[in-house]
Amino acid sequence: MFQARLGGVTYSIVARDPETGELGAAVASRSLGLGSCIWARPGVGAVATQSFTEAGYGPRGLDLLAAGRDPADALAELLTEDERREYRQVAFLAADGRTAAHTGDRCIPDCGHLAAPGLSTQGNMLGSPEVWPAAAEAFAAATGSLAERLLAALDAGEAAGGDFHGRQAAALVLASGDPADPPWQTVAFRVEDHPEPLPELRRIHRLHATRRRRAAFGPDTDTAAEVELARAAGLGAEEVALTAALAESRRGDRDGVARALAPLAGADRRWREAFERYEELGLIQPAPHST
Prior knowledge:
By secondary structure, this protein is of the alpha+beta class. It is built from nine helices and ten strands. Helix 3 packs antiparallel against helix 4, helix 6 packs antiparallel against helix 7 and helix 8 runs antiparallel to helix 9.
């Protein structure tokens, strides 16, 4: 039932934000295909599966956690079925913060894991045995969102030695702590092939996080400040203009919406139809002369 995939993912982290209940996982490697290595499901948990990766630990592990199984029992059950368990490295995190991890005897050194309530770090094929402890310490010391703390953990793992044969890919997955949220709201980013995958993953997350700020815009939103944040994050001119329009719309300033959208409307008439759809869906206030 279980198989082995050539190569080994290097180091990863699964963690829970105790304040929000958000769940997440992040991984870095000198290997492609990281989408099969980290998994998360809203209100259920997160899984990292690596070292001659068997992706089945992800969905099957989450199914067991969703059924109420203790992470240690769920992991033990799947390991018992796996004839190559001594080559595997797996970590389970439940929505309440319970964790369980396994590093097989045949994983490539340096290798090991550190599992604690709300957090598990693990790695194999590493440049030093300090990688997974450094990742755990960095996560605990970091501030900000769960994603920012996960990225800090990856950076610390890289600084402590990372993968002994280089770097290539990185990935991040985030899920709500609310089981009522649908699985398709899980956020996932992957950098499959890049000379500096961790900075690139952080750049992509920064773009996403800046766009997500729009959902919190309200009557007191400072449009100029949000525009500067959008530019600093690297959003393109179109996204910056839309950020301004959304901010002005939440402030109830229809003229401000029109001013923000004018450069786009002037550049390409098709934007006018796009603005109509935004208005129809209630995303922005109708702007004078926008159609």
